[in-house]
Amino acid sequence: MRCERDGLLSADGTDSLTRRYAKYAKTVVEVGRGERAYQKSMGHPLEFMPLTDPSALRVGDTLRVRMVLLGRPVSDGRFHAGSTPSSATALRDTSAARRSASHDVAVTTNGDGSADVLITRAGLWNVRTIQIVPAAKGSGADWDVHWATLVFAVTDRK
C-alpha cells in the first residue's frame, strides 16, 4: 500500500487526512482444461470473483461476478465494465481507447454482492472499481482506498 497525505482537513480541523491506496489486478487466461483458476480467490482485500467462466464467454453471453471487500460481498457496490477491440492498434491508440470507453457500462451489485455484465462485443474486457473504507486505528492512515480490476478476453468464435 502507498500512503499519501492530502490538503484536506480532518473532521476536527486539526490536521490533513492521510489515505493509503493499493491496486489489485486479476487476469484470467485459459490454459488447458484442468482445474478452473477463475474460481479461486487471490486473497486481495478487494477483488472480483467470477461466478461464470470468463474464458467460455462469447458475444451475447452474461458474466456473473461478485465483488468482495475485506472478505465480504459488497452489496450495492458500483463498478464499470467495458472492452477494447482485439486489435494491436486499438491497444496502442488512445483515441481508440476513448471510443471504446464510450461503450462502458456502470453496474451495481445486488444484496449478495453479485451482478451481471452483458458481453456485447469481442475483445479485451476490463471490470473495475474503487472502494474507500475507514483505515484501521493505529494504521497511520484515515482512509484505505482499494482499486480492483478483472481482465479477460472474449473471442468472437462460436
Fold topology:
Layout: E1 2-9, E2 16-27, E3 46-50, E4 62-69, E5 72-73, E6 78-84, H1 88-92, H2 94-101, E7 105-108, E8 114-118, E9 123-134, E10 143-154
Parallel strand pairs: 2-10
Antiparallel strand pairs: 1-2, 3-4, 4-5, 4-8, 6-7, 6-9, 9-10
Describe the protein in words.
The protein is mainly beta and 158 residues long. The chain is built from 2 helices and 10 strands. It has helices spanning 88-92, 94-101; strands at 2-9, 16-27, 46-50, 62-69, 72-73, 78-84, 105-108, 114-118, 123-134, 143-154. It has a 6-stranded mixed beta sheet, with helices on one face. The chain is globular and about 50 Å long. The termini are far apart.
Keywords, separated by commas or semicolons:
single chain; 158 residues; mainly beta; six-stranded mixed β-sheet; four-stranded antiparallel β-sheet; 2 helices; 10 strands
Q: Give the integer mean of the pLDDT values.
A: 82
Give the SSE order as H and E letters: EEEEEEHHEEEE
Radius of gyration: 18 Å
Main pleated sheet: 6 strands, mixed
As a percent range, the share of helical residues equals: under 10%
Structural class: mainly beta
> How many DSSP-defined strands?
10
Strand arrangement in the largest pleated sheet? 1-2-10-9-6-7
Distance between the termini: 42 Å
- Kindly estimate the percentage of residues that lie in beta strands according to DSSP: over 45%
The geometry reads as globular
**Spans of at least 5 consecutive residues with low confidence:** none
Number of helices: 2
